[in-house]
Amino acid sequence: MYIEGFVLAVPTANKEKYRQHAESAVELFKEFGMTRMVECWGDDIPDGTVTDFKRAVNAKEDETVVFSWCEYPDKQTRDEAFQKMMSDPRMAELGVMPFDGKRMIMGGFVPIVDTTQALDR
Has residue 1 got a pLDDT over 90? Predict the structure, then answer.
């Protein structure tokens, strides 16, 4: 398994628009190889002493932090999916993102502990 994680700030007023935007992408992303997508709306995001989720994405007072991830069978599938996303004209049909994509942070991760399945070490 390979995880691609995201943290972003979404205008709180755009919650439903964001949910619909994410939901509209699911079938297309599955076609590209994604096996699971989870979108989480911030509920308990404490301020940190040195850093925190809000500072990481420069969230404003009227924004909510969103944490999400996509699962892929492996890194190669994720890398291929990314290339497909960048070149597939259907991506434009998803419309304008209801958040500032410049402040989104993202990265790819290899699970080292997962209670849902045994992992190779």
Answer: yes
